[in-house]
Amino acid sequence: MIGAATAALALGVALSACSPTFDWRTVMNNDKGYTVDFPAKPGNDQRAVQIGGTPMQMAMQTAEAGNAVFAVGTVMLPDDSDATQRAALDFLRAGLARNVGATPDAHPAQIPLAAGGKIPGLEMTVSGAAGAKHETRTVYARLVARGRHVYQAAIIADQPLPQEQVDQFFSSFQLY
């Protein structure tokens, strides 16, 4: 009897260890023009932002897994001028850094296109204290403008994530 109970307990532990924290699934957002792998079923949200004094909407798809939030935000710009795109990229870069009290340091990155090729964007990783409790957060982000859209693919985590999880998310982020 004790042997059967021990075997059942061991099987339960083994099965629970097999349940993935990251259940990756490809999400195609045809309305916003991107595809990305999320580690869980994403939810949708929208919020108003002011970029350069102009009110705009930011659509968000977010999923939580492994003590992290994975998100893709899309801002629809009033035009596709270089100045408008730069202002939106600067706004997003500064906002991400400000959320954790860090310097908005970013470096160039190549963002893949679903049809092949790449376009220039920005990549940043910042850490610092966030929220009322000043808890440490790490933010990984890629920012890119394409036409009248500006995109923010970001991961916000309680602690640094394994590189393979970061790579899975960002390597799957492709624009149409």
From TrEMBL:
Q: What keywords would UniProt list here?
A: Signal
Name the UniProt record assigns to this protein: Transmembrane protein
Q: Name the domain of life.
A: Bacteria
Signal peptide per UniProt:
1-19
